Amino acid sequence: MITFYVFVFGLVFVVYERLVLSPLSKIPGPSLAAATRLVLMYHEFTRTRKQWIHELHLRYGPVVRIAPDEVSFATWDAVKEIYVFEGSGYEKTNFYKLFDNYGTMCMFSATEKGPHGERKKIFADRYTKSYIMQPEVVNGIQDLATEFVKKCTENAGKAVDIYVYLHCYALDGTTLHLFDPLGTHTLTDAGELVKMKELAFRDDLVDSYKEYYLFDLLPSEIAPLLANYLRRPPRPRRIATQVMNTARRTDVASHTVLSKLLEAKLPTKSIASEMLDHTIAGHDTTGDGLCFLMHELSLPRSAAAQEKLHRELAENPGAPIDDLPYLDAVVREGLRRFSPIPMSLPRRVPKGGRRIGDAFVPEGTIVGCQAHTLHRLDESVFPDPEAFIPERWLEPEGAMERNQLFFAFSTGGRGCIGKHLALLEMKLLLREVYSGYRTRVAPEMTASMELDDQIIVSRPKGQQCWIIFDEVA
Ligand code: HEM
């Protein structure tokens, strides 16, 4: 009986501490979520985390407490404080351990600054804008864009599932940059299609959260014992094997990321872990982003945008890819409206706590911003936020505020290293399509294009997107 009373008293004290004594108690948010993490976990396991947080921001404003020890922010001040200032010390949380490959860390999964920086400096030059714009890279991606259009138009007037071919394009483009000529050829070789399918159709959200909470919440002596009974998040077996075998090869082109990893003489497992991470990071995001964008452009409501894009491309056939302002605006608006990584990017508040905007946040608290909300909440920056309006990016007024809140690639030292490659891939593909074709959604297209949350990316829920390509006369 005494044990029972001690337990109840302890529980009451914990809740009282969280709701009244904690410095976070001054931050708005639902009381139940402040009292127990179970509320947030419920939304994570039911794939509603991003939307739930967004609705809380609409209700409570730009700072919301979403769990006893977690706060979501949606302002530029918070982005600057958490992600931009070098040396501010907001490290990644253990959530990122989920992204180790072959049991070995990669740059993305490194939680601390030191190991992250060490790894990044090995190959950072391969992803700079000037490097990406070299003919070796541009020509390779251009060939894939040409192949994509050929694939989509070989049966004139027939609907094509671009979800499949866009993910093939993104996978082949990424592995080309990573380890040409040993990359995938899923666009041209039907036998390799299964590699793309393993990646684009896997669903590891529930297993990943189970693994995360097991290791995060339980003592380190117990968690590994229980892990034996847990179904591990499924790994893309075929691509993981190809990457591991490739990590041992030295016959790759000198302009690839692999050539730099080999120069650094890293252990084979570390090289493979790094390359598998980039392969997955470049495949899902670019494939999903392009799919949402082409679907939107193919809807009757975007006819004017498609027409404007076609006109710009037709009038400037040989223009450098970055000298096409409407194309740039279309891509930005696509990434704003349908961010491939719309979820919070969690970081831990460093020693001593920090002031973020007006809120004091004690050390150890998990803080983060999500692109989905940054791209919508402040309607003075993004009026009519649910509408697809490329023109908003062409107005000089408010450009600084728009750029500050644009978070599709995150920002700062841990922002997306593949951003320039992704933008090149997106722009070359759209130019190839809309220079010569109009697209429309096929009448038989019934699959849902709702954003379906995975562990960090969001993809089209129905995982199909049937589009018809009509040649421009
Ligand atoms: C439209 C396409 C893409 C989007 C929207 C995107 C978005 C992002 C975001 C938001 C992050 C930060 C995640 C976090 O902090 O948790 C990130 C990191 C990263 N991305 Fe991308 N990405 C894209 C394409 C690519 C490509 C093509 C590659 C490489 C081939 C790539 C490789 C990476 C890597 C390696 C990181 C980790 C960076 C670090 O830890 O320093 N991404 N990406």
Automatic annotation (TrEMBL):
- Top-rank taxon, per record: Eukaryota
Can you provide one Gene Ontology molecular function annotated for this UniProt record? heme binding
Keywords linked to the UniProt accession: Heme, Iron, Metal-binding, Monooxygenase, Oxidoreductase
Tell me which PROSITE patterns the record gives: CYTOCHROME_P450
- Required cofactor names: heme
User: Where on this chain does heme bind?
Assistant: 416
Which Gene3D superfamilies does the protein's record reference?
Cytochrome P450
- What is the protein named? Cytochrome P450
The protein's organism comes out as: Daedalea quercina L-15889
**One Pfam family, short name:** p450
According to its UniProt record, which protein family does this protein belong to? Belongs to the cytochrome P450 family.
What pathway is this protein a component of? Secondary metabolite biosynthesis
